[in-house]
Specification:
CATH superfamily: Luciferase-like domain
GO molecular function: oxidoreductase activity, acting on paired donors, with incorporation or reduction of molecular oxygen
Number of helices: 13
Organism: Nakamurella multipartita (strain ATCC 700099 / DSM 44233 / CIP 104796 / JCM 9543 / NBRC 105858 / Y-104) (Microsphaera multipartita)
Radius of gyration: 17 Å
GO cellular component, one term: cytosol
CATH topology: TIM Barrel
Pfam families: Bac_luciferase (PF00296)
Protein name: Luciferase-like domain-containing protein
């Protein structure tokens, strides 16, 4: 499945068919639909129907909210209708928001076992992964890993764990604004939300960030690393830094003021990267 080197991550409630068509026109290789799409995978079927070639990925289905049997049924339905264009992303979610959360590693293994039994090919699924055990599992049992809320430093670590073969497709937040204070004001609410999740905090500390960096809404340095801001060239460099660190693909999540349009930033970055010219 060809997802290219650059993709777009977008919240399931903030992506439209028209935006998907434009993202495809710009030359991005995949759209990752985030915030735990439900069992019907809405709006992924609508996005697939509205586009022609771009891969649409679930980024990711929460294993606690959607059982493996339901996920497998959704995979087979979409894979049959749009062959080679749907990538099933799954993940364990967060103990803070998942009822009954326990034995996360064992739950992941069991879920992947069920996907195997249901005939979902490993090559067309990816696993949300941060720490070494789950990264290794992603490389062994799926096409690869989809880390979220990370920096190029983590990408370098993840590649060292995965080795040369498996897919590594991290997410990177970007803000098209050269004013640092204004850009951080846009990014901070999102960063603060994820800093309330212990697995993300532990991962950042493993990556070398301090207790002070991850406290509250995050230090300026951490916010700037998790949500790169600046002009189009700076944003493009922030994405490419993941590729330089060992990623195969990086998906850009545009942060804007409330209700803002992500397309101007995606258009500017695509031009800087030469995506349109490359198709």
């Amino acid at each position: 499945m060809d997802i290219g080197r650059y993709g777009v991550w977008r919240h399931k409630d903030r992506i439209t068919a028209a935006q998907a068509r434009r993202i495809e026109e710009l030359g991005y290789g995949a759209i990752w639909v985030g915030a735990s799409p439900a069992g019907d995978l809405s709006p992924i079927p609508e996005l697939l129907a509205a586009t022609e070639r771009i891969v649409i990925a679930s980024g990711v289905i929460n294993m606690w909210a959607t059982g493996a049997e339901v996920a497998a049924q959704a995979y087979h339905r979409l894979a049959a209708e749009y062959p080679g264009r749907f990538l099933l992303g799954v993940g364990i979610g967060h103990r803070e928001t998942s009822a009954g959360y326990q034995s996360p590693y064992a739950t992941i293994v069991d879920y992947l076992d069920q996907l195997d039994a249901a005939g979902v090919p490993a090559a067309e699924r990816v696993l949300a992964a941060l720490g070494p055990r789950v990264l290794r599992l992603a490389g062994e049992r799926t096409a690869g890993a989809h880390p979220y809320f990370t920096t190029p430093g983590h990408t370098r670590f993840a590649r060292s764990v995965l080795g040369a073969g498996p897919l590594l497709a991290p997410e990177q937040k970007i803000v098209l604004d050269t004013d640092g204070a204004r850009a951080r004001a846009i990014a901070r609410p999102t960063v603060e939300y994820y800093l309330s999740r212990v697995n993300y905090v532990n991962n950042l500390k493993r990556d070398g960030w301090t207790d002070e960096d991850v406290a509250g809404s995050g230090s300026d340095a951490l916010v700037d690393a998790l949500a790169v801001h600046g002009d189009a060239a700076t944003l493009a460099a922030g994405l490419t830094a993941h590729l330089d660190a060992g990623a195969d693909h990086v998906c850009a999540q545009v942060l804007t003021e409330a209700g803002g349009d992500p397309l101007p930033a995606l258009e500017a970055v695509a031009e800087e990267l030469g995506l349109s010219a490359a198709g």
